[in-house]
UniProtKB/TrEMBL annotation:
Taxonomy, superkingdom: Eukaryota
Primary localization class, coarse: membrane
CDD domains xref list: tetraspanin_LEL (cd03127)
Coiled-coil ranges from the UniProt annotation: none
Biased composition (Polar residues): 259-269
Organism: Aedes albopictus
GO CC annotation terms, alphabetical: plasma membrane
Record family assignment: Belongs to the tetraspanin (TM4SF) family.
Protein name: Tetraspanin
SUPFAM superfamilies: Tetraspanin (SSF48652)
A Pfam cross-reference name: Tetraspanin
Keyword Nucleotidyltransferase in record: no
Cited PANTHER family: TETRASPANIN (PTHR19282:SF28)
Length: 288
């Protein structure tokens, strides 16, 4: 009996340790997801004038998923400590919900990748058209061209449609902002960057969306495996607790039988109480 009880306790400890390890992995994954979502949100924020607002949704959803995963991991650890089958089952359901959210984030990020080029071309043209009339747009365009080392949409010649040429300028001369020139050439003649901003900004946005999609899909499959493991662990806990209860009942029954007072139902008759049956034949009985 003692060996069985030790085996049950050892099995329950193994279940607890397994849940702790799974939740620790999920906690690290949640921190990574929040970091990636925050970083991509910051990148999109730097180029917010060139990115539509709905492109921010997958990054924000990724951060929300990471925060939810942190609380779910803590909930699973508490359920393991209390050996609560209900809490472990709820933990598995929460993991399944997180899986659905991650799948939604991945699908939306994949869907947005096809809209990147058209969106970037449109927003670049709109920003360049408002370059002189809006200081915030001017600052954003200058920041983008300096960081990405690009000029215009397809090339620096695109600025000829938005900036007026200086007096006595030839047809080949194109007026460009100072942000189109490398810092080393500002004091001399401006040599604009060779590449346009369309391809480079498109690459940044597309790669960020792809990172969100692939990261969410990878973590989503890990989450669904974690959910399945949670339900299996809940069943193991239920079975272990049932075996504990059965062993305890058997022990109580055995102890109850051993300590029960002896109360025989048969009591031997005294000699004075023995009355021979009148119809029974005895050797000394008178003959008929």
């Amino acid at each position: 009996m003692t060996t069985d009880r030790n085996d049950l306790n050892m099995g329950m400890r193994c279940v607890k340790y397994m849940i702790f390890v799974i939740n620790f992995m999920f906690l690290l994954t949640a921190i990574l997801i929040v970091t990636v979502g925050t970083a991509i949100g910051t990148i999109f924020g730097d180029f917010e004038y060139f990115i539509d607002s709905h492109f921010f949704s997958p990054a924000h959803l990724l951060v929300a998923i990471g925060i939810i995963m942190m609380f779910v991991s803590i909930f699973g650890c508490v359920g393991a400590v209390k050996e609560s089958t209900a809490m472990i089952n709820i933990y598995g359901v929460l993991l399944a919900i997180v899986f659905i959210l991650e799948l939604a984030a991945a699908i939306s990020a994949f869907a947005l990748q096809g809209q990147v080029k058209e969106m970037v071309r449109r927003t670049l043209n709109e920003s360049m058209a408002n370059y002189n009339g809006n200081p915030s747009v001017e600052q954003s365009v200058d920041f983008m061209q300096q960081v990405l080392e690009c000029c215009g949409v397809d090339s620096h010649k695109d600025w000829s449609f938005f900036l007026q040429p200086v007096a006595n300028a030839t047809e080949s001369d194109v007026v460009v902002p100072e942000s189109c020139c490398p810092p080393s050439t500002l004091k001399e003649s401006c040599i604009p960057f060779e590449y346009g901003c369309l391809d480079r900004l498109q690459w940044v946005v597309a790669q960020s969306a792809a990172l969100i999609a692939t990261g969410a899909m990878t973590v989503a499959f890990v989450q669904i495996l974690g959910s399945i493991c949670a339900f299996m662990l809940a069943r193991t806990i239920r079975r272990t607790k049932s075996l504990r209860a059965a062993r305890r009942w058997q022990l109580q029954q055995s102890l109850g039988i051993m300590t029960k007072p002896h109360n025989p139902s048969y009591t031997q008759m005294e000699k004075s109480e023995k009355n021979p049956d009148s119809e029974m034949y005895l050797p000394n009985s008178p003959k008929c």
